[in-house]
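Our consortium's second objective concerns turning raw sequence data into structural hypotheses that experimental partners can test. To show how far this objective has progressed, the report includes one record in full. It was chosen at random from the queue rather than selected for favorable results. The single chain below, 156 residues long, was entered without modification.
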Amino acid sequence: MSTHAYVVRVAEDPADRQACFAVRKEVFVGEQGVPEDIEYDAYDAVAVHVLAVREDGVPLGTGRLLHGEAAAAKVGGDLTVGSLGRLAVTKEARGLGVGIALVRAIEDAARARGLAAVDLHAQTHALGFYERLGYEAYGPEYPEAGIPHRAMRRAL
């Protein structure tokens, strides 16, 4: 287990965004077999991306927040709800609290934009993780990129 400290920040510059995309490629494309052509989408250009980075600069995790019109289709048209997505933590950083820190940073970004709640599409194996953070599952299980998911929501 790594003893390195890390920080979580909004990915503002192109280098930070590339680090976010590299983590997603490692976790979703490499580990989970998500086709690369569906991993990246038009929402990446308008999303708020967050990045967890180790003190020595190594990226450990990422996630994104969609809000406004970009989130509308994912949250039933409710413009007061944001959409948390693409949450990924590298193998070496799992168990260090990086995922929790990323979710909380995304929630902070949602609050800063005046949103009342955050929705997400959780892989079913991760339901417990999100439940511990206050999210509640709703609706049926469904496949996304060939992986079983459930919708979840947390009021802010």
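The partners drew two points from this record. The chain has a mean pLDDT of 95. The radius of gyration is 15 Å. Both points have been shared with the crystallography group to help prioritize constructs.
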